[in-house]
Amino acid sequence: MELYEFALKQGIGDVSIPIVSKGDSIKRGQLIATCDNDKLGNNIHTSVSGIVEKVSETEIHVTPCGEESKEFIPLKSEKPIDLVQEAGIIGLGGAGFPTHIKLNHQFDEQGTILVNASECEPILSHNVERIVASTKEIIHGTQLVMEMTHATQAIIAIKGHHKIAIEALEKNLQPGITIHLLPNIYPVGDERAVVRECLGTLLNVDQLPLAANAIVINLETVFRVYEAIVFKKPLIDKDLTVAGKLEDPAAIKTFLDVPLGMKFSEMFDQAGGIGKEYGEIIDGGPFMGKRASLDHPIEKTTGGLIATEVFWDGPEKIGLLVCACGAHKERLTQIATSMGSEVCGVEYCKQAIEVNGTLKCTNPGICPGQVQKVMALKKEGAQAVLISNCTDCSNTVMSCAPKMKLPVYHATDGALRACNMRLVRKMRK
Predict the structure, then answer these.
(1) Contact 242, 225 (CB under 8 A)
(2) Given this model, what pLDDT does residue 77 score?
(3) In CATH, what class is 80-231?
(4) Which of 4, 143, 174, 248 has the largest CB neighbor count within 10 A?
């Protein structure tokens, strides 16, 4: 049997401290690493019963034994917010901020819970699958989040083309919960974009949704909060999309309740097997995902596993145009190297502002134009441009780069080609 590997740092915050030793026999759901209450981090529980094979400063390895079971050791807390913390729940649609800290805020008067069901990145589809499979549980989880925060309303934000999921939600809505239909563009699922689309408030780059009397929470996170409070279940399972260069060509497959710690290779096997030739493995979505290996374990923040198309040969010299909403400089440089191209210049979208070491867009998904940036790259000697831009930014690049005789490559090309999906270039309106 494959070893299960549990990273001691998952999401934002401190490294968790192991409380098990090599040789220990453990049960599914058992707490194996803790985070002090006064630190930013999260508890880690085992998703399988087995024997601890290794404990290091960075991970715990477990050899599973016995037949797989859905049973688990229940949480001990009683209060909802304590259950969320004990369960080790973090944001499951982004960087992995501890959910109990977010939900510890209580609104004084008007307050809104924004359930982010946008399935923002192309290819990823497990959130929509979860809605269809667990509609009543999602609504119940939303009610629980509203109660904890004293919110007066909740809005489920979902792209309008997900007709089946929307119909399921509409049949099960409860008082105070509504649906907002989002446009099918990237990055409409950005936290500040969700606030803008649902509440009509454009937050500054350094503002949190609380500035608009709102809390944004990912849809799967809501479901795991429901499980923690109703069933006292720790966060030990994860919903995933596995896609790309599989034995089943251009497949996009969703999996619900995959045990954490399982290797990527095993997930590709469960999806029917990875293809003989592929470019790279992406952990996450095409825009913001990172390169990974097949022996990497599924973590709490893992949402997508994509085997991309083989890299196309690029030009000798290529320029990078970095967008705050997509792959950053390091990731674009990695892709350029895989294309066999030398980076001769780097430009940043004029709306990309650095906040605490991270690029933020002043108005996600609404672009002012990129002509000057593309011209600057051409002056640097670029024979093509590699971009990471959002849907609207890509429109502006395509309005000028071809006129300058500069071919355009996008960071998402390999993933989208592997799924036979239309490339991010000029958006038809």
Answers:
(1) no
(2) 97
(3) alpha beta
(4) 4
Helices (H), 67-134: 80-86, 99-102, 126-133
Task: Please state which of the four CATH numbers 3.40.50.970, 3.20.20.70, 3.40.50.300, 3.40.50.10700 is assigned to the domain occupying 317-418.
Answer: 3.40.50.10700
Instruction: Reduce the DSSP state of residue 165 to 3 states and report it.
Output: helix
Categorize the per-residue pLDDT at 406 as very low, low, confident or very high, splitting at 50, 70 and 90: very high
Region of residue 176 (left: phi > 0; alpha: psi -120 to 50; beta: else): left
Token couple for 61: 């390895």
- Strands 237-244, 304-307: pairing is parallel
How is residue 428 written in tokens?
């038809």
Domain boundaries, the chain: 4-64, 80-231, 237-307, 317-418
Which segments of 147-299 are extended strands (E)? 153-159, 177-182, 214-218, 237-244, 251-259, 281-283, 290-292
Which pair of tokens denotes residue 216?
């944004």
Read off the pLDDT of residues 57-110 as tens digits, 9 standing for 90 and up. 999 999 999 777 899 999 999 999 999 999 999 999 888 999 999 999 999 989
- Amino acid sitting at position 387: I
Whether 4-64 shares its CATH topology with 80-231 is answered no
Q: Are 99 and 225 within 8 A, CB to CB?
A: yes
Written as one letter, the residue type at 420 is N
pLDDT tens per residue across span 113-157: 999 999 999 999 999 999 999 999 999 999 999 999 999 999 999
Per-residue model confidence (pLDDT) at position 399: 86
Contacts of 420 (CB under 8 A, 6+ apart): 249, 250
> Which CATH number is 4-64 given?
2.40.50.100
Prediction pTM value:
0.95
Structure tokens at 106: 């209580």
Whole-number pLDDT of residue 87: 98
Q: Which two tokens stand for residue 12?
A: 């934002």
Pick the CATH number of 237-307 from 3.10.20.600, 2.60.40.200, 2.60.40.10, 3.20.20.70: 3.10.20.600
Can you tell me the distance from the alpha carbon of 264 to that of 386, in angstroms, rounded to the nearest whole number? Answer: 28
Helix H or strand E encompassing 156: strand 153-159
Alpha carbons 126 and 221: distance in angstroms, whole number: 12
Strand order in the sheet with 153-159: 177-182, 153-159, 112-116, 214-218
